[in-house]
Write a sequence for this structure.
């Protein structure tokens, strides 16, 4: 499954790279790409898994690395 | 300016004012700072000022350090400022925070601005939609309008949603979608696309999609998502950043400790170390590349070339082979007469008159082309046709008072007992007879699109293309003629779909550079996918083509290939300039700092200045 996530007020390109790396290390995420310019994240995840908990994890990561950013679907 | 930015700016100004005041007061009031009480007073005042900006930064830093990220830029700034306090440079410690915050604020604002400037959304989205209801016309957000509603579009307004015109006539300016500058006229029954502009008439449109699924939103989404596909240069810089930061931090630690012990002058060397920490943030480096590509993709989309990934845009700058499909790509797919050959002793007019007599009655597209050709040359048929007979798959017969006229294909000519006709078997031909007498033939071919030859010359001269190759399923004779007319270097005819794949694979294997395949995107999806960059022509409203290709030329203008290559070249050049510039300035500042010439201002410039220059440089892609 692929899903786009909006990350508004993403203001540091290096943070975007860090978020991408951290989300890629989540167990149920097969692939994650963050576009700093588009302020969007593309997550590919294990179809058999529920997206809710994955999204919560992603939110947590974003909050830690970029506290000003707001994450939404 | 956003609220969050205003708050940040307020904190920066407050800290700067308080810092200035405190520094002045402490300098004017001679207190004995060896006295513990006064010493603590001064530290506490400075620490208080420090916390205005420092609190949030420290909180973020601590969180990240607990998560195992010691190279978090906030953490590095905290270390730098605490180190300054440690050597008694309170003002410098606070200055680190102030400069860091100014830098961040500048970055935010600059990046936000450039995002808006480049974004495709600005030129494509309509803010309002006039919905026609039973109680009159009501203004709604385009997103609230249901499929099948009737909406009104006034002269000069942007069409908010895809649909079909039910009332009104107007010119439609599709330049925002296709880059095509001449408006086309549209009336009832014509489909129109969201994002285009109705130039002069009042239209009523029945919506066929929701705003969210309309053309403009798909393009905006594609352009934004293009940045998900990263360029090689961007991957390089991200990797570089991963090495850069730890290296500079280690150097900072070493420079802060080792020379201090040797020279016994810790203040000088710790200051150098602080400078290193300030410059260690790789943000300006990392943003400079995607910024350039984002601008490049944005520019291309404004000219009607949709590039679906930064990586594809990058590859388009270095194309060696352009491989084309024939029908519908370099040719328009419509027939026209290429050559008229009257039989010996037959005048052109007699041949054309006979052709008109027979072919006027048929609506076969070959017949239509012959009729058009003859009429264009002023031929007229004066005889009256008494009876008309169509022989399916062969030709037609027209009976007049003076005899029977016949016209048909090769098979027909052979069976029609005509004599003296000849054929080379290359193109489609029509043979014309009066009774049994052969009058001559018309040779038909597909029309080469306008500007193909010029485009090919430009691709070779300006864009560095080496081989132009045509792959076609058509007959050899037809391909040869088109290939010569267009200026192809090579062509392969009579290919089955698998044959095209084989041929393209071989071409790709032969080249270390990019191989582009250009097709109509409808029946050549596998070939488009196989090429380094698959380009589909004529993508407006054709979702299948947009889906299958890496890059879509929205209208039918093959000349856009040259623009795509030029925009790509410019983007790549600017991205490279950004890299060299960003890394260069950072290194220069590091060297200056190590040599003891560093000033905090310069260190801040290394980050914010580089970023702003990278933005300005990237915006050049949008111009010229």
């Amino acid at each position: 499954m692929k899903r786009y996530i909006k990350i508004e007020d993403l203001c540091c390109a290096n943070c975007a790279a860090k978020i991408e790396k951290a989300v890629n290390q989540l167990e149920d995420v097969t692939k994650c790409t963050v576009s700093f310019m588009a302020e969007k994240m593309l997550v590919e995840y294990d179809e058999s898994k529920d997206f809710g908990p994955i999204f919560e994890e992603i939110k947590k990561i974003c909050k830690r690395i970029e506290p000003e950013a707001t994450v939404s679907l | 300016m956003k609220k969050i930015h205003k708050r940040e700016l307020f904190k920066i100004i407050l800290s700067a004012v308080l810092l200035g005041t405190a520094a002045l007061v402490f300098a004017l009031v001679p207190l004995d700072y060896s006295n513990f009480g006064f010493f603590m007073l001064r530290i506490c005042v400075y620490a208080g000022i420090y916390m205005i900006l420092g609190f949030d930064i420290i909180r973020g830093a601590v969180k990240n350090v607990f998560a195992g990220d010691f190279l978090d830029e906030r953490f590095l700034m905290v270390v730098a400022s605490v180190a300054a306090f440690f050597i008694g440079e309170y003002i410098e410690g606070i200055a680190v925070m102030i400069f860091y915050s100014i830098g961040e604020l500048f970055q935010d604002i600059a990046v936000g601005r450039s995002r808006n400037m480049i974004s495709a959304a600005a030129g494509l989205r309509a803010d309002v939609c006039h919905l026609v209801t039973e109680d009159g016309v009501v203004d709604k957000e385009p997103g609230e309008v249901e499929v099948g509603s009737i909406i009104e579009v006034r002269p000069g307004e942007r069409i908010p949603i895809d649909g079909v015109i039910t009332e009104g006539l107007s010119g439609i300016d599709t330049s925002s979608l296709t880059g095509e500058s001449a408006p086309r006229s549209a009336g009832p029954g014509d489909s129109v696309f969201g994002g285009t502009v109705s130039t002069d008439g009042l239209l009523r449109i029945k919506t066929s999609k929701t705003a969210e699924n309309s053309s403009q939103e798909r393009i905006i989404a594609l352009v934004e998502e293009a940045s998900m596909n990263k360029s090689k240069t961007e991957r390089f810089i991200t990797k570089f950043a991963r090495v850069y930061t730890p290296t500079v931090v280690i150097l900072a630690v070493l420079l802060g400790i080792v020379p201090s012990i040797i020279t016994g002058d810790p203040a000088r060397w710790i200051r150098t170390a602080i400078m290193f920490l300030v410059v260690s943030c790789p943000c300006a480096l990392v943003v400079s590349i995607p910024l350039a590509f984002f601008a490049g993709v944005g520019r291309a989309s404004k000219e009607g070339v949709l590039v679906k990934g930064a990586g594809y845009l990058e590859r388009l700058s270095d194309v060696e082979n352009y491989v084309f499909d024939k029908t519908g790509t370099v040719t328009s797919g419509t027939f026209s007469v290429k050559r008229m050959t009257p039989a010996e002793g037959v005048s052109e007019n007699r041949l054309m008159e006979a052709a008109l007599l027979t072919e006027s009655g048929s609506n076969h597209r070959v017949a239509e082309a012959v009729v058009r050709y003859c009429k264009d040359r002023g031929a007229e048929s004066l005889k009256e046709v008494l009876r008309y007979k169509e022989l399916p798959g062969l030709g037609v017969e027209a009976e007049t008072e003076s005899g029977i006229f016949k016209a048909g294909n090769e098979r027909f000519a052979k069976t029609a007992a005509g004599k003296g006709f000849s054929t080379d078997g290359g193109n489609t031909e029509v043979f014309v007879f009066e009774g049994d007498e052969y009058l001559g033939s018309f040779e038909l071919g597909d029309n080469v699109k306008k500007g193909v030859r010029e485009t090919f010359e430009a691709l070779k001269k300006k864009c560095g293309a080496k081989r132009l190759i045509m792959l076609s399923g058509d007959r050899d004779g037809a391909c040869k003629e088109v290939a010569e007319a267009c200026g192809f270097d090579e062509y392969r005819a009579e290919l089955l779909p698998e044959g095209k794949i084989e041929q393209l694979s071989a071409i790709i294997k032969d080249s270390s550079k990019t191989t582009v395949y250009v097709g109509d995107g409808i029946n050549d999806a596998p070939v488009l996918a196989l090429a380094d960059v698959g380009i589909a022509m004529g993508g407006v409203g054709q979702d299948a083509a947009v889906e299958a290709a890496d890059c879509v030329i929205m209208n039918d203008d093959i000349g856009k290939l040259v623009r795509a290559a030029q925009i790509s070249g410019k983007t790549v050049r600017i991205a490279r300039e950004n890299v060299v510039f960003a890394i260069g300035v950072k290194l220069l500042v590091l060297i200056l700092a190590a040599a003891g010439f560093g000033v905090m201002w310069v260190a801040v410039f290394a980050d914010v200045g580089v970023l702003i220059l990278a933005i300005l440089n990237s915006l050049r892609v949008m111009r010229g």
